[in-house]
Specification:
heteropentamer; A alpha/beta (321); B mainly alpha (334); C alpha/beta (271); B: 334 residues; mainly alpha; two-stranded antiparallel sheet; 15 helices; 2% strand; globular; C: 271 residues; 2 domains; 4-stranded antiparallel beta sheet; binds magnesium ion; ATP-binding (chains C, E); AAA+_ATPase (chains C, E); ABC transporter related protein (chains C, E); ATP hydrolysis activity (chains C, E); P-loop_NTPase (chains C, E)
Chain lengths: 321, 334, 271, 334, 271
């Protein structure tokens, strides 16, 4: 990042005239808070000013669209967006593209067909495929349950896209000796996850593991298991990569976490915007790092959080050099 | 005993004439009527403040996008007003919209035309509304719990029909509906406006409207006068359902997809718009203008806060405070 | 029948005239534990004022609510205008030609005076589904109707919530009188009225009678009952214990019948 | 004119005596009182059905976990009952719980003891409740809109204080609170039970309780009799706030963390429990037993559906249908 | 003062006695456009029944609502028991010793009869913060109170919603009479009552008077007013246009004053 200093002094002139707007998902989820701090961190390193707006809830599709349309009429030089669904932001994006302002899509992808039909141009996409993350979790489950067995799935709000993709990925990733006995929705809420996991433990006495669609709910499930005195005997894998979840991996409450590093997604998104405003050509799509964190590598993950413990490629940092 | 009007008849008769003659101004300033204007005053204050802080607030582009953003809420608030006027509440209005959207999406994806899909959405809303209305009026179950049940059931049905997945809808006419405009008025806002005007006429210039207000004001008295209160109660839920169906089409056009995850913010906002509009939740008194302005106020609030770049954590706080302040203006209400 | 203490007048109960517009036979109704009517029988004739008197809680209001379709009696028969009727709703009773001024007034407080007067009787313009209210016509008609009864005339555009006790009652009576019906029931219409207003209502009743309407009048005011009515029924504990032609009775007899000091015409105490 | 009681006094006096003598059975079967039992009947039916379908439903372990899971909702429903009894509604109850939880977590993490943190949570609830109450009773603003504003403001404050992040709370006493039990009764359920009993005594055996019901039944009449209705209105919101504070401690103990999560399900469920419990939203009539059973019913419903392995898409549908069916039992209500 | 048509009796208005328990001077109040009181003055003496009569909408109820703390008058002075008072709430008026039976009855429909009777007067047991209601004591006291007035005694445990019109009024009167006060205001207390009940209430009023209470009685029933009252005030269009000792007036004069056929003692028409 030090190499980018001189170019960013050049770009900071542009950056002063060019503010960046970011519209991300739900407010009360730590995943997006981490993403936000990633954006802010990168913005302050690059000397860019940024306005970050978020939907009031993870289901607030039209509210998020309203916020983007509000910002679209303003004089922003680049937009970072994390749409709740593939299509809900398309109209705002069309408005932005019409003014030839670059759009950086992070985390959840914009539906390609919809974008095309609305003439919305996405400069680059940075994120992890949630299906792929779920698949990794499935593979990991197969690894820690070599003998197979019954597992239960805890999703977010029923019908939520992210949750659906993670659960579908998990189903793809597991070996055939693992059977999914139940799928419940816990609304992205730790307390609900705890209650439902407790109920499932009663219903399925020989359950071997849980896959949980995010860390917060995963911690609730872990609590249910420890309340039942079965910590360690029932495996829990969740997706996200929050610090609390790493701690839980360390204590053994969680067996593994598929970490998506929202911090990195956010900061790469910001870097992409800076590069775009400098007129650089962006790669079409960049995979954000994904990592399976288990007891073996958790110390490293913890010490480097919110960034990944292992190195990853950041093409935008290269561009900004 | 005198049977002609004696001049002791002074206290109210001339007052009435004066009121008629003195006209609008005095009427508007009467504290009892101020409540009807609370939302408007709130909206004007808000607009002035936001414009002072950010000059692009009143730019044509932003006004247009605010109006379009408000359209769905306006339609829902009008539907909610009918229900609230009968002293009821429709908690299922947002879920019914979701269900209707999913039905719309499914029918459309199955290859049927746009019109068929739209009719299916309206029919869905009407049916759920009818179910609500019949259970409430015939079954004599509290509206709150019935529509809470429907809230849950309708979102469940939406999930089942959509198999939990959003369905992208790409259609030229829908796109035009979402983006087309006449001057600063987007098509979707114009639709909402027409609905509001029709609703106003129905509520204040037809028998049905009078019956709605009578049912809400005093159901016992109304039914002793021969007003078919059960049928009126059923009808308002059907109206709310149909309007939820119309809103669903606007929603699908806006977000470009039919999604089964319920948008709960619309529920509370629809009631908030109605209450900010000076309509009593105890029924019997209602306006259409009020809730429409209430909906605009809520939309302008979020838009303005976004334009000002108020940090995301401070937005809910600001919304809460402004809503209470706006409501302060309704304090003159009986 | 218990020992009849030589009643001076003819008991009406055994003498249902062929031309009675309304006949109630053995109507009974219970609200949970409370048997408000225990088999009440009475009748009323065309072109006459028939009064019902009785103690508080005797069941007078309940009886007329059964007649006007508010309650459906648990048992018993009601015959109106030659047909046996079973009104399911007040609407049905109204359609059949029964108009009622209820004791609890049955006004919608949040509607204006004229809206209340024309509730379910709205004047509309236009045709088909496009019939709109003729607000102006209703207002001016309402103004006339109210001025004919009230002394301190309330503005017809003001909400009923703001009226004084007597003003409300005037509105209520206006409504019933304004629309020609075969039978007009008034439950204590002058209870809250002042002297002048009472006089006007009494005039109104006399006029309605002379126009051939039948009127059923509940009142605690004996002078009024003796002045206005042609026949009078006495209710006690959910039954009509006696009926008399007003001309053949007097205040003392009626008071005796109400208090039970005088036995009625039916064996009420035996039940 | 007789001034002694004549025997014409038959219609109601002996009835009353009979009712007193005939006692409970007749009273229970009286349709007018059936509503009070609707939730109980619903609960029993539900338990029988679930037990028939899955024998582990009535296992000691499952009962214990249901009761613990119900504790928070019971506490909130009791608070909501006081507000609803005055014909109000507290939409902010769940957000206040969130805010109190975050305050609890922040104070606790700052090194203050458990007791101080708990007191801070209660004080937070009480303060927000006081603000609600004062604005509603003194400002004469509709409860719905005020508490809707507070709903938004409190969750915003919670986000700000917590900086949007959950805070893990590790504390021995809290862990015991969450997991300890006497027989099948978890500590947290026992706390909820004690609160319910106290609330029952307050509502039915103190002046204050009578004033609450009088205020809800007819505020004008109550205040003409000299009941300080404004103060009573304020008090019920404070009670709701304090109970939300207590609920927040149970919540933090249960999940082991203080989170700024929205908890909207608790809001609707708290009102649903109250209504299922036979309490009229129009105020004036209330019980405490009803809402407690209502809360148990809602908890048992979700528990049973999960035990039976009902698919996630079918769960909302089933919840909706069962809630309406349970409410059918309240149809006898006036 | 307009030309006084030789009034036979002494106008009370110019003769405020030193021992008046209540004096109202020039009370005025407006509700929006409606000036319900336009400067009303009157007074009442200890140990007497003071009647107020007047047309519907004349402002009688509004006047007594000002006295009992429901409304605060826009202007004017009220002196009670020797002190100028400004009751902010009904509670304050009650504490000062004014008990009111309102025309709209002011009962809480969903509470039982005994709860209504003892509202804000609850009997409690225990000490300090742990004072619990003595429900049994209140029930049995309530039973006594109601039986003394009503003929068809409602069960004191039943909700007021279920009572008949007269039964409610009886409950309302019981409440005011049951608790000794300096001034008892009754707004049309017998309007809905039957003969027997009316007689009992009149007895009650006479008894209260003989016990030294002052009573303010609003009634449209002249016979009753002449029978019970010691002084009578006539209201017209928001003013007390005349006051008379009852012994020195008669029905005809009062009717004339009410209708305006006879000019009052103050220049009302000039305003
Ligand atoms: N809806 C009801 N539910 C329960 N009890 C009722 C109901 N309506 C009337 N009652 C009871 O029935 C009895 C008769 O009441 P009703 O109103 O007919 O009396 P009434 O003769 O009209 O008396 P009043 O002269 O006081 O108006 C009373 O004891 C009353 O309490
Ligand atoms: N709260 C109010 N708001 C508006 N107008 C009111 C209000 N209360 C009373 N009025 C008006 O004031 C006038 C006097 O009313 P009030 O109730 O004092 O009459 P009253 O003499 O008691 O009549 P009645 O004999 O019919 O009871 C009436 O015209 C009435 O419409
Ligand atoms: Mg009656
Ligand atoms: Mg009056």
């Amino acid at each position: 990042a030090c190499g980018s200093d001189d170019s960013s002094s050049g770009s900071s002139a542009a950056a002063q005239t060019g503010k960046v707007a970011a519209v991300i998902k739900g407010l009360d989820n730590p995943f997006f808070q981490t993403m936000e701090s990633g954006i802010k961190q990168a913005a302050s390193t690059g000397g860019t000013s940024v306005t970050i707006q978020a939907a009031t809830a993870i289901t607030d599709t039209s509210g998020q669209a309203d916020k983007l349309s509000g910002l679209a009429g303003q004089d922003y030089k680049c937009f970072i967006i994390n749409p709740i669904t593939g299509t809900n932001l398309v109209q705002g994006l069309a408005q932005i593209s019409a003014k030839n302002v670059p759009i950086v899509n992070i985390d959840s992808p914009v539906d390609a067909d919809a974008a095309k039909s609305a003439n919305a141009k996405i400069a680059t996409y940075i994120g992890t495929d949630n299906t792929a993350a779920g698949e990794l979790a499935g593979k990991q489950m197969s690894t820690i349950l070599p003998g197979g067995g019954k597992v239960a799935l805890i999703g977010g709000i029923s019908g939520d896209v992210t949750s659906g993709a993670r659960l579908d990925g998990f189903k793809k990733g597991i070996a055939s000796n693992i059977s999914i006995v139940q799928t419940v929705a816990a609304d992205w809420d730790r307390q609900t996850a705890l209650t439902k996991a407790t109920d499932i433990l009663t219903a399925q006495p020989d359950l071997k593991g849980f896959f949980v669609a995010n860390d917060d709910m995963g911690l609730g499930v872990a609590k249910a298991i420890s309340n039942a005195g079965k910590t360690g005997r029932i495996k829990v894998i969740s997706v996200d990569g929050n610090k609390d979840a790493f701690e839980a991996v360390k204590t053994g409450d969680l067996s593994a976490v598929v970490a998506q590093f929202p911090y990195v997604i956010g900061s790469m998104g910001m870097e992409a915007c800076e590069a775009a405003m400098q007129g650089k050509t962006l790669p079409q799509s960049v995979d954000a790092p994904v990592q399976v964190v288990t007891k073996d590598n958790v110390d490293k993950a913890l010490s480097s959080a919110p960034k990944p413990g292992e190195s990853y490629t950041d093409p935008f940092a290269e561009l900004l050099k | 005993m005198t049977t002609t009007r004696t001049d002791t008849a002074t206290p109210s008769a001339p007052t009435a004439q004066r009121a008629r003659a003195g006209g609008l101004i005095r009427w508007v300033l009467d504290p009892a009527n101020l409540a009807d204007w609370a939302a408007l005053v709130g909206l004007v204050v808000l607009v002035v403040v936001f414009q002072a802080l950010n000059s692009s607030f009143l730019s044509a582009g932003n006004i247009q996008s605010m109006l379009v953003a408000a359209a769905i809420l306006v339609v829902l608030a009008v539907g909610q007003t009918f229900v609230v006027a009968t002293a009821g509440i429709d908690l299922s209005i947002a879920s019914v919209m979701t269900l209707a959207a999913v039905v719309f999406g499914t029918v459309f994806a199955s290859g049927a035309g746009l019109l068929v899909a739209a009719l299916a959405a309206l029919a869905t809303g009407a049916l759920v509304g009818l179910a609500n209305g019949l259970v409430i009026s015939k079954g004599r179950i509290t509206d709150f719990i019935v529509t809470l049940g429907t809230l849950s059931a309708a979102s469940g049905l939406a999930l089942i029909i959509a198999d939990g997945k959003p369905r992208t809808i790409i259609s030229g006419p829908l796109l035009r509906l979402a983006t087309g405009h006449v001057g600063i008025f987007g098509y979707s806002f114009l639709i909402a406006l027409v609905i509001a005007v029709v609703a106003h006429v129905v509520l204040f210039h037809t028998r049905f409207g009078t019956y709605v207000l009578a049912t809400g004001g005093n159901a016992e008295a109304a039914s002793a006068t021969g007003v078919p209160t059960a049928r009126i109660k059923t009808a308002v839920y059907v109206i709310a359902g149909v309007l939820a169906g119309i809103a669903s089409i606007l929603l699908v056009a806006r977000v470009g997809a039919a999604e089964p995850a319920a948008n709960t913010a619309f529920l509370l906002n629809s009631v908030a718009a109605v209450v900010l509009g000076g309509v009593s939740l105890f029924g019997g008194r209602a306006t259409i203008v009020g809730p429409v302005i209430g909906a605009l106020l809520l939309t302008a609030l979020v838009n303005g806060l976004t334009l000002l770049g108020v940090s995301q954590f401070y937005q809910p706080l600001s919304v809460g405070v402004v809503v209470v302040l706006a409501a302060f203006l309704t304090r003159f209400q009986k | 029948m218990s020992d009849t203490t030589a009643a001076p007048a003819v008991p009406l109960i055994h003498d249902v005239p062929a031309d009675a517009i309304l006949t109630v036979e053995d109507a009974a109704i219970a609200f949970g534990q409370v048997r408000a009517l225990k088999g009440a029988s009475m009748h009323a004739r065309r072109g006459e004022v028939t009064a019902i008197v009785g103690d508080n809680g005797a069941g007078k209001s309940t009886l007329i609510r059964c007649i006007s379709g508010v309650h459906a009696p648990d048992s018993g028969r009601i015959t109106f205008d030659g047909h046996e009727v079973e009104f399911k709703t007040p609407h049905a009773a109204r359609d059949a030609g029964i108009e009622t001024v209820h004791q609890n007034l049955a006004l919608v407080e949040d509607l204006t005076v004229w809206q209340n007067l024309f509730l379910n009787r709205e004047i509309v313009r236009g045709v088909g589904p496009l019939r709109l209210l003729d607000r102006r016509a209703m207002r001016s008609r309402a103004d006339e109707m109210v001025s004919s009864l009230a002394v301190n005339v309330p503005a017809v555009g003001s909400r009923v919530r703001r009226l004084s006790g007597g003003q409300r009652q005037a509105v209520s009576i206006c409504r019933a009188a304004g629309f020609a019906s075969k039978l007009i029931i008034m439950d204590e219409p002058t209870a809250a009225l002042g002297v002048q207003e009472t006089a006007r209502v009494e005039e109104l009743i006399t006029r309605l009678k002379s126009e051939g309407h039948a009127i059923l009048l509940i009142s605690h005011n004996f002078a009024q009952v003796l002045r206005l009515s042609d026949a009078v029924w006495v209710m006690r504990a959910g039954r009509c214990v006696a009926g008399r032609r007003t001309a053949q009775t007097d205040g003392d007899e009626i008071v005796g019948l109400i208090t039970g000091a005088r036995a009625g015409d039916i064996p009420v105490e035996a039940a």
